[in-house]
Amino acid sequence: YDLMQGLLQARRSFLIRLSSTAPLYATERIALKRFREGLVYYWPADAQKDKRPPIPVRLICLRVQRKIKLWLMTDVLDAHRLPASTASKFYRWRWRNEVFFRSYKRTLGKVRLLSRTVAQVHREAEGSLLAVQLILAQGVMALPMATVEEAGNELASVRQVLLEMRAEISYATGMYLGPRQRGSYLQRLRQARLKHVRRKRRGGRKNQVRQRWPKRADHKSPKAPKIRMMGTDLKDLLAETLGIEG
Q1: Cβ 125 vs Cβ 113: under 8 Å
Q2: Parallel, antiparallel, or unpaired for β 227-229 and 24-26?
Q3: Which of 233, 224, 239, 244 is nearest to 72 (CA)?
Q4: What is the largest CA-CA distance in the chain?
Q5: Which residues, in sequence order, are bridge partners of residue 15?
Q6: How far apart are CA 209 and CA 226, in angstroms?
């Protein structure tokens, strides 16, 4: 609540994913089964107790799969300014950030930094993050111009590009690579990238977990938020905090 109020005071907008624990209220009863988007109020119990005003938000329901729905909340109440399709695109971009940091931590092995001073840690983190960006840029630049826009909708494979870079370095030092010697570096890089794109189009495994850990709980998608209907007392408090004359 304080974060949202700070963003609103700074004239910034937000788009947040919701779960069943979000304190949402409505002046009328809402049926979530056929709900697509509408006006609700984000109003935690602490804010009600301190008589702080609720935050009017627009609740958006996106259908990700057949039985899975994605619930987003934004302070942009005008649907023409932020359509549901644009909100869905923003959320997909957020997932790309998650994949980027996974590649940074796992593919490049940057789970733990090795420097001993704060200044060196900052330099190590900055240099390694730039290295990931350069690896991704190499994979995109190897594509033909006709497929760059098409490939922009897919995620670049850091591992595939990294393997080709290591193979090129090994070939330059005189090590035997067998079939990898055929073609130039950009051609092999382009083939590795396109294989990754085709694999993403076919769809990955339903279960992305390679190894099950004893103490790790399986991922469960957040449930739909519970929109509570305001009673008479809350409606009076709503009018009081928002300055609405009855």
Answers
A1: yes
A2: parallel
A3: 224
A4: 84
A5: 74
A6: 30
- Phi, psi dihedrals of residue 29, rounded to the nearest 5°: -70, 135
CA 244 to CA 142: how far, in whole Å?
A: 60
Instruction: Give the separation between CA 47 and CA 159, rounded to whole angstroms.
Output: 47
Ranges of the chain with pLDDT below 50:
146-149, 151, 153, 194-200, 202, 246
**Residue 18 bridge partners (DSSP):** none
pLDDT computed for residue 111 by the predictor: 81
Q: What is the pLDDT of residue 147?
A: 47
With tokens 């001993």, the residue in question is 116
Q: Is 59 helix (H, G, I), strand (E, B) or coil?
A: strand
Residue among 62, 73, 58 nearest 17 (CA): 73
CA geometry: angle 108, 114, 116, nearest 5 deg:
155
What single letter denotes the amino acid at residue 89?
K
Handedness of CA 79, 80, 85, 88 (dihedral sign): negative
Nearest to 77 by CA among 10, 3, 8, 30: 8
Torsion angle of the four alpha carbons 167, 169, 170, 174, in this order, in degrees rounded to the nearest 10: 130
H or E element, residue 56: strand 55-63
> Which DSSP helix (H) or strand (E) runs through 9?
helix 2-9
- Separation of alpha carbons 3 and 14, rounded Å: 10
